[in-house]
């Protein structure tokens, strides 16, 4: 089919609508490659920007996907299926040891009962009666600004870190844009980039964060976004050092790349706050999640940094939810300022650090080379991820782990699994031995060091 002959509109919205109807009707088969943006623009006698916007709209609706050098490909009618990397993490069995979740230990979450009861002492009509109030409670904004690692141009509150990332991607990404991400990184971020029709460029990590030379090389490809996790990186546990942040900021100076920092483990990480916003405040958006500290169901994250982007985000939300619940914002403010809640959080932070350290030491005794020193996740090299996952699941105890391939933004020379250690309170040696028996080749198991570090 010559696509240009089937498209009569000359507006981005019309072009997207007509191609969308060809896809949903089956006239354009799944896996069909759409014409290059410039080629279709020439045939339709419109600007490449018009076709680019049309392709972006199709990608956001889930009908097409940008596949780098392969171009833009028909995905098919949108289906109510889980994103591909979420589907890859689904468990077929209910294991005794579920090390896949990436979630905090419920027993270590601060008690929110007092925070909820504190609402009774408030004039809730002030919190609940207005549509046109500011999106953030003034006292909460003050507390957030006090905690921010750099002076933010603006701060808002949204419904969790992934909600923030999704909204920022929708504001800033166009079909064909290039996005720099860590390799490995959090799978939903990769799914969202692909859904937007953008191209993923993976940047290698070392024990200090993104490797500056790789970032310098990647900037030659003129990316539009850099997405990174500044501390307790998921899955590696790496935290960016002050020295590395300074080096990365020097590389980024002079570029126009917008930087999104996902501080997903705020509150439970032992690492200090390090931010590229200390050097490039007008180009950095930092997301501070409270899910690990106070529980996933709190559904709040703070977003602060470059004022123009934050204002655009708030304006876009005005056409939808408008704001995040001010009742929940009050609960969050209470938890951030209550001495008992803060003491419980400090205890959780210490327990998580002990559990991760104990698990890493046990794995190292078995011969595993583990990087990263923070957070609740451990990135474990294995001979074959699928074999390791199956063998662990079939053990008497039943151990579920996450496949490392779901976290990859670019190929790595070896395979990995990710384990979450937040709820492991004992049996570190036995668990490490089981993982080694399932995941390491025989030579590596027999040659493990007699005296661990």
Automatic annotation (TrEMBL):
This is Aminotransferase class I/II-fold pyridoxal phosphate-dependent enzyme. Residues 9-77 form the HTH gntR-type domain. CDD domains: AAT_like, WHTH_GntR. It comes from the Bacteria. In the C-terminal section; belongs to the class-I pyridoxal-phosphate-dependent aminotransferase family. InterPro entries: Aminotransferase_I/II_large, HTH_trans_reg/aminotransferase, PyrdxlP-dep_Trfase, PyrdxlP-dep_Trfase_major, PyrdxlP-dep_Trfase_small, Tscrpt_reg_HTH_GntR, WH-like_DNA-bd_sf, WH_DNA-bd_sf. The keyword Transcription applies. GO terms for molecular function: DNA binding; DNA-binding transcription factor activity; pyridoxal phosphate binding; transaminase activity. The keyword Transcription regulation applies. PANTHER family: HTH-TYPE TRANSCRIPTIONAL REGULATORY PROTEIN GABR. PROSITE patterns: HTH_GNTR (PS50949). Keywords: Aminotransferase, DNA-binding, Pyridoxal phosphate, Transcription, Transcription regulation, Transferase.
